[in-house]
């Protein structure tokens, strides 16, 4: 079966959003709510084990802040905190601080020119995705994607495969028609469990994770004048990811 769709993860894959984007926004929200919950770069790396911002806040409180006495409306507090975090995060994106990763724009453009379907498959909040695409890719970039699968639309976030199954169902495609691009072990477990072959472009936070099962692991998507570093798999003599290489990896 030929390649019909590319399913892109967002955080860490299309852009390095975590350390200088999401992390900062969480801290800004904690400060606004008068909470002394500073997440430094190293701690945030550990917290990334849990996908989903609301889930991550709860995980932090349960595992790192046993001293914290939860108010009776704690569930609501998490929701309000996370809303504030989303608003700070969008401000960061709107300031232009988070560029697309190498090769992302080029690959998306080539895939569109060749008539492939494009989808986003992520655990992050939908408005984070649309704001990133508009601010860091192109003001019209949301319309370039056939589907944005994001956030709380499925009960179980990555590493569960639910969001991939949901996306393929909406696209009307079987897993054999798709390839996924992910940056993390949680993302890879999610895509593989849905039957989608997956290439991993590592990010700073994920480079030492276990990527067994990926068709290939590369430093980034690469550019013709800035080749990727191949970390696992066969790149068939190529040094940047294009549609032809994705087709070979999917075959
Ligand atoms: C991304 C996430 C998200 C973001 C924060 O994982 O886990 O939770 O860190 O976004 P992936 P929200 O790249 O595997 O999709 O706060 O909007 O959840
Ligand atoms: Mg990711």
Describe the structure.
It is a single chain. The chain is of the alpha/beta class. It folds into 2 domains: 5-16 and 100-250, HAD superfamily/HAD-like (Rossmann fold), CATH 3.40.50.1000; 18-94, DNA polymerase, domain 1, CATH 1.10.150.240. It has 9 helices and 7 strands. The protein has helices at residues 18-32, 41-47, 53-64, 74-94, 104-113, 126-137, 162-171, 185-193, 243-250, and strands at residues 5-8, 117-121, 147-149, 178-182, 197-201, 216-218, 230-233. The chain has a 7-stranded mixed β-sheet, with helices on both faces. Helix 1 (18-32) crosses helix 4 (74-94), helix 3 packs across helix 4 (74-94) and helix 4 (74-94) runs parallel beside helix 6 (126-137). The N and C termini lie close together (8 Å). The mean pLDDT is 98.
What ranges have pLDDT less than 50 throughout 5 or more consecutive residues?
none
Query: Order of SSEs, N→C?
Result: EHHHHHEHEHEHEEEH
CATH architecture of the largest domain: 3-Layer(aba) Sandwich
| Morphology | globular
From the N-terminal CA to the C-terminal CA, the straight-line distance is 8 Å
* Structural class designation: alpha/beta
CATH class of the largest domain: Alpha Beta
Mean of the pLDDT scores? 98
Report the oligomer. Answer: single chain
Beta-strand proportion: 5-15%
How many individual domains? Answer: 2
Name the bound molecules. xylulose-1,5-bisphosphate, magnesium ion
| Count of individual beta strands | 7
Largest sheet: 7 strands, mixed
At the fourth CATH level, what is the homologous superfamily of the largest domain?
HAD superfamily/HAD-like
**CATH fold descriptor of the largest domain:** Rossmann fold
Question: Count of DSSP helices?
Answer: 9
Strand order in the sheet with the most strands: 3-2-1-4-5-6-7
